[in-house]
Amino acid sequence: MSHGPVTLAVLDDATIRSLLVWPDVIELIDVTFAADARGQATVLPVVGHSLNGGRYSLKTSHLRLGNGEEMLEVFGLKMGSYFPGNVERHLPTHSAAMLLGDPRTGQPAALLAANAITEFRTAAAGAVAARRLAREDASVVALFGTGGQARAQIEALTHVRSVREVRVWSRSRERAESFVDRLNLPGVTAKVVMDGQAACHEADLVVTVTPATRAIIEREWITPGTHVNAMGSDAPGKQELDPALVASAKVVVDRRGQSVGIGELQAPVARGLMRVEDVHAELGEVCAALRPGRENDREITVFDSTGVSFQDTALAGMALRVATARQALKSVSL
C-alpha cells in the first residue's frame, strides 16, 4: 500500500506546561519507575555524539502502564542536545523534541516539544528519590546550580517534603542572587551561600544540577543523615560528587548501566573505589518495594539521575491524554 500524508498530533512546550501539575507528574514517575523494575518497560541503550562543542543524545523506550481502559501504552524517542556555546548565541543551551508512535500500528503519531517534559520528569525523579530516601523531617536544602532545572527541583521537592530553607550556590553570585529573587515559593526562605561547604553544613538534602566535569561536593562536607540528589551527570566525563562520597554512601541509581557510562559511577568505578555490584538499588526497585529505601536516620544516601527514556515516554503519554481530553491538540500533515 502506498503512503499518503502522515498526520501527527502536535504539542508545544507552553501547552504542555499548562497541562501538567506536580502531584500528578510525581505520582506518574513513581509508578513508572516501579513498572520498570517489574519488567514493564523496554529501554534501548542511549546513543550520543559530540560535535561542534556540544552533544546530542537519542533515548527511546516502550512502556505499558495499567490495564483496561486506563492502560497507558507509549513508545517513542527523544532527541536532546546540550550546546553550552549557545549562551553567546542567545539561544537555550538545552533543547529537546520527541516523536511518538501508535503502539497498535507502529505509525508515527505525535510530535512534541520536550523541553517542558524533560524539566518536569527530571525534577519529578528527584522528588520521588527524596520521598523514598530523604529523612521524613528533611527541610533544609543546599542547591548547587541555578539553571531552569534548579527551580523545578525545588518546586517538586516541596510536594514530598516540608522545605523551609534553600541555600543557593552558583559559580556566579549574580546568577545566584537572581535565582533567589525569582524563586518566591510560599513558606520557603532562599539565600545565597557562595561557600559550598557552608551550604552543605547541616543540610538535610543536597541537590546538584550543574554541567560540572569535576567534583563540586566533597565527601567531608556531607554529614550523617543527608540525602543527595545528583541530577547533572548525564554524559561521559561529567561529575558533580567526590568519588569517595559515592563509594561510601548508600547509592540508588535510575539505571545501573547508564550510571556507569554517563553518570556519577563513572569516576568511582574507574578508580576502583566501588563496583557496579555495590549499588544498593535502582530507584524502580525501591518504588516497587523490591529493595528498601532509607533504613535509618544516620545513613548518607545518594541518588544518581542520568535520565531514563521511560520517564519521557510516560510523561509524553500523559500530556497527550490530558491534551486530548481538553481538546488542546493541534495537528500537522507531512
TrEMBL record:
> Which SUPFAM superfamilies does this entry report, sorted A to Z?
NAD(P)-binding Rossmann-fold domains
Q: Which family does it belong to?
A: Belongs to the ornithine cyclodeaminase/mu-crystallin family.
- Name this protein carries in UniProt: Ornithine cyclodeaminase/alanine dehydrogenase
One GO term in the molecular function aspect is: oxidoreductase activity
Pfam families assigned: OCD_Mu_crystall
Q: Coiled-coil region(s) at which residues?
A: none
* Species this chain originates from: Deinococcus yavapaiensis KR-236
- What GO terms fall under cellular component here? cytoplasm
What Gene3D superfamilies would the database entry show?
NAD(P)-binding Rossmann-like Domain, ornithine cyclodeaminase, domain 1
InterPro entries linked: NAD(P)-bd_dom_sf (IPR036291), ODC_Mu_crystall (IPR003462), ODC_N (IPR023401)
Query: What's one GO BP annotation on this UniProt entry?
Result: carboxylic acid metabolic process
